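Private note to self, pasted from the team thread so I don't lose it. Backbone tokens:
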């Protein structure tokens, strides 16, 4: 079974740390907002006051932030797994960008 080795330089690690911090906060805010909105919609469907169970708003916000964080980590690990399988088959790796869309065609990467 062939093994894949990755070389990592210090500037790449620093950039990943900065982007992870920014994406972590943004992901938490968006996920928390979705969790809060889900609880408000649940209360609206039940036709009860939106602030009937305020602790549920907090729990759903934290749960939404956690789920969004796990989703981002899952996407990163999936890209690494796909690249490992492609390397095993002798195919070029998929292009992983550090932008909103994690995959971009190679032609867009070469123009930069």
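Design output:
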């Amino acid at each position: 079974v062939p093994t894949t080795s990755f070389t990592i330089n210090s500037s790449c690690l620093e950039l990943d740390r900065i982007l992870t911090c920014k994406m972590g906060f943004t992901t938490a805010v968006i996920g928390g907002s979705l969790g809060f909105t889900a609880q408000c919609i649940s209360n609206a469907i039940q036709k009860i006051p939106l602030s009937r169970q305020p602790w549920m708003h907090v729990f759903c916000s934290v749960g939404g932030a956690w789920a969004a964080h796990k989703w981002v980590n899952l996407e990163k690990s999936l890209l690494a797994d796909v690249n490992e399988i492609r390397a095993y088959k002798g195919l070029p790796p998929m292009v992983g960008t550090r932008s909103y869309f994690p995959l971009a065609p190679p032609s867009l990467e070469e123009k930069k």
